[in-house]
Request: fold
Amino acid sequence: MGKMEEGDNMKNSMQLVCNNRLKSVLVQDKQSNPVKIVNVLKSEILYTLKNYMEITASDLFLNITVDEYGYYVLDIEARVRRLKTVGSFNEKYDE
Reply:
């Protein structure tokens, strides 16, 4: 292998290392932001759900993570004691 090919291989290797490091830093930065908003989201979701069911804050589990591609993943689990009886719902669906 010539010196020029070795230099190209080293350059490609360094670019790969730099790209991986940048991706890692960006994903870590995104992971720190959801911690700040989880409580606000939980409060808003709880407020909405209380209109339709009996639920408390301890019944609602919310988690935000970042996948390997940098996308936020929102996991919500709600344990509901009962649904509220409502005279009628306006059934509107956006399709």
About this structure: The first strand starts at residue 53 and ends at 54. The chain has one domain: 3-83. Residues 14 and 39 are 40 Å apart (CA to CA).
